[in-house]
Amino acid sequence: MADEVGFVNMASKAAAGNAPELGIGMLGYAFMGKAHTNAFKKLPYMMYPPVAIPKLVAICGRNAEATAAAAQRYGYEGYYTDWREMIQNPAIQVFDNGGPNDAHAEPTIAAAQAGKHVFCEKPLARTAEEAKTMLDAVEKTGVKHMVAFNYRFVPAIVQAKKLIESGALGRIFHFRAVYLQEWIIDPNFPMIWRLDKDQAGSGALGDLGAHIIDLARFLVGEPKSVMGMARTFVPERPLGDGSGKMGKVTVDDAFVSLFEFENGALGTLEASRFAQGRKNYNSLEINGENGSITFNLERMNEMQVFWANEEPKETRGFHTVNVSESYHPYWENWWPQGHIIGWAETFVHEFHHFFDAIVNNKPVAPWGADFVDGYRNAVICDAIVNSSQSKRQVDIKY
């Protein structure tokens, strides 16, 4: 017989732990639904000891069959086809909005009014005006609020932020960033919600540009003015419903912009979904008086650094830093040095930060993006559109 005296039931010990449960209600089950759920499941045993245990209460989508399948696949206790019903569930403390852009404002505002903490995918809204209604709602209700700018939680980006804040780079002169993809370059790619202004708000600007705009604010500071130019390269696309009919593309396929920062730095930002060969190329460079930093998301465990006064000068130049040491951001929770992490892990860090803010009543900002950041990002996006249409420089006014 087995010696039962020597057996310790760790399941009961875990259940009796100090970390509180946070019930999750998620809107959306596709790309972001999968990414967020993956983070919820990893968080308790990787960000250990956890600040909270995510409890997968419910998932919501319009298609009952697909939503039911997602609930079963991901391990949610149940599902809804109406978000209004879901946010009334008292077991839900956190509303996670991973739906399309036109489903951000109304459900998120209602969830905040129901007393739920709210997490919303980027861009926060289709316009600055819409984003302001969301910001006003969360500030009125007092719930915690966060926008999913997950690239703030890449270890190399956090390390770059710390170097800048330490003064190591000195005065910042330049910030330049590009975010390039290729996935809609085929003119026969069908119309989807991301190509419709009423649903998406904008194209490459809101989808990709919002990320690098956020990184510009996060790393360098507030912009003072912007100039922008946007293009739609394929104005019509097949509806994709078998009818053979075409639909009008009402968003930008690409944009470029110039930034003037309040601290005097200059910036260039560009995003396109028409860049052949680029899969998820989010790249940035920061030039300061004492050195420079470059980063490419496709090699996200690396950072290129140059120090102007490095000795010996004969070997001075850009060198690669593998941001995977135990003393680098978040790495104490992962693997031994050199054993890299990936894109999905940024969501683990992001939700850990959000749950810490909820459980311990900490501010989400400045390290995380709250709805103030989401609103300001939308103001900048609108200013770029305004500049492109007016062919003039536009001042940023929040």
Radius of gyration, in Å, reads 22 Å
What is the CATH architecture term of the largest domain?
2-Layer Sandwich
Order of helices and strands: HEHEHEHEHEHEHEHHEEEEEEEEEHHE
How much strand content do the residues show? 15-25%
How many domains make up the 3D coordinates? 2
CATH class descriptor name of the largest domain: Alpha Beta
Please, what is the CATH homologous superfamily of the largest domain? Dihydrodipicolinate Reductase, domain 2
Low-pLDDT residue intervals, each spanning 5 or more residues: none
Distance from N terminus to C terminus (CA atoms, Å) equals 72 Å
DSSP summary, beta strand count = 17
Give the number of helices.
11
Mean pLDDT: 95
Shape: globular
How are strands sequenced across the largest beta sheet? 16-15-14-13-7-12-11-8-17
Reported by name, the CATH topology of the largest domain is Dihydrodipicolinate Reductase, domain 2
How does the SSE layout of this entry go?
Elements: H1 10-15, E1 21-27, H2 31-46, E2 53-60, H3 64-74, E3 78-80, H4 83-86, E4 94-97, H5 105-113, E5 117-120, H6 128-141, E6 145-147, H7 155-166, E7 172-180, H8 197-200, H9 204-219, E8 223-231, E9 236-238, E10 246-248, E11 254-261, E12 266-272, E13 281-288, E14 291-296, E15 302-307, E16 319-322, H10 345-359, H11 371-390, E17 394-395
Parallel strand pairs: 1-2, 1-4, 2-3, 4-5, 5-6, 7-12
Antiparallel strand pairs: 7-13, 8-11, 8-17, 9-10, 11-12, 13-14, 14-15, 15-16
